[in-house]
Amino acid sequence: MSKEKIALVTGANKGIGYAIAAGLGALGHRVGVGARDENRLGVAVGKLRAAGVDAFGVPLDVTSRSSVTEAAELVELEAGGLDVLVNNAGISGEMGPGWAQDPTGLDLDVVRTVVETNVLGVIQVTNAMLPLLRRSSSPRIVNVSSAVGSLTRQADPDIEIGPVMAAYAPSKTFLNAVTVQYARQLAGTGILINAACPGLVATDFTGFHGPRTPEQGAATAIRLATLPDGGGPTGSFFEDDGTIPW
Predict the structure, then answer these.
(1) Which parts of the chain register pLDDT below 50?
(2) How far is the C-alpha of 47 from the C-alpha of 52, rounded, in Å?
(3) CB of 244 within 8 A of CB of 150?
């Protein structure tokens, strides 16, 4: 009988993160639900358990070094290891009219705040969890990115990529670049790390605008989190239909 796999999903108390946690739980993973707000965290864990998921709460602010350290210790204590890390926690930053961020008048503090969560938080959490992941027989890391981070698509005038988002979109480009660097460094270790785009999903993150459900948005991340043993893609960027150009 195979050993139960352990997953940690950050920002998992709602939206796409919750759907990823539920999907991994339905596949038999024991799931650590990472979230900043402990009340919402408790509610999410309760809902997942009621749905039959073996879930446990992980209080986690990805921007806080002490919180991340404590989260790694809690996962070790609660689950004894980690097989899957899904870095889902992210923010858009303050938006202007039309859900846009105009680079010509952008507050640098908005950029700093977005990068702190969407990029530096991912690095901080990943590095804290790597000692646990290295002990896994099939470790997987998924960074939830966005197609708006694709420079190829952003630069093509014939592709509709949405409003100008001068803090959020570059943060995802930065995250994609970091993902590639991890893949290069971890080559040959068995740790597969990839970026996943959920598409435009109707959650509170998007003001509930978008044609996709959280479950649809979670599908690519779940697939990458459960890549089979014996090798697979690493250092790549995926959506439902395949790879996304950098």
Answers:
(1) 1
(2) 9
(3) yes
Q: How far is CA 55 from CA 28, 101, 117, in A?
A: 11, 37, 24
- Return the number of other C-beta atoms located less than 10 Å from residue 102's C-beta: 13
SS3 208: coil
d(CA 67, CA 193) in angstroms, rounded, equals 23
User: What would you report as the CA-atom Rg of the chain, rounded to the nearest whole angstrom?
Assistant: 17
Q: What is the pLDDT of residues 172-189, one digit of tens each?
A: 999 999 999 999 999 999
Active site residue 168: yes
d(CA 146, CA 196) in angstroms, rounded, equals 7
Angle at 233 between CA 115 and CA 170, to 5 degrees: 20
Residue carrying the six token digits 């992980």: 58
How buried is residue 203: exposed, middle or buried, by Cβ count under 10 Å (0-12/13-18/19+)? Answer: buried
Overall pTM surpassing 0.85 (yes/no): yes
> What is the chain's length?
246
Q: Which of 240, 232, 228, 214 is nearest to 23 (CA)?
A: 214
Model confidence pLDDT, tens digit, residues 196-212: 999 877 555 555 565 68
Q: Which of 18, 56, 168, 238 is catalytic?
A: 168
Please give the structure tokens belonging to residue 66. 């002490």
3-state secondary structure of 153: helix
Contact call for residues 167 and 106 (beta carbons, < 8 A) = yes
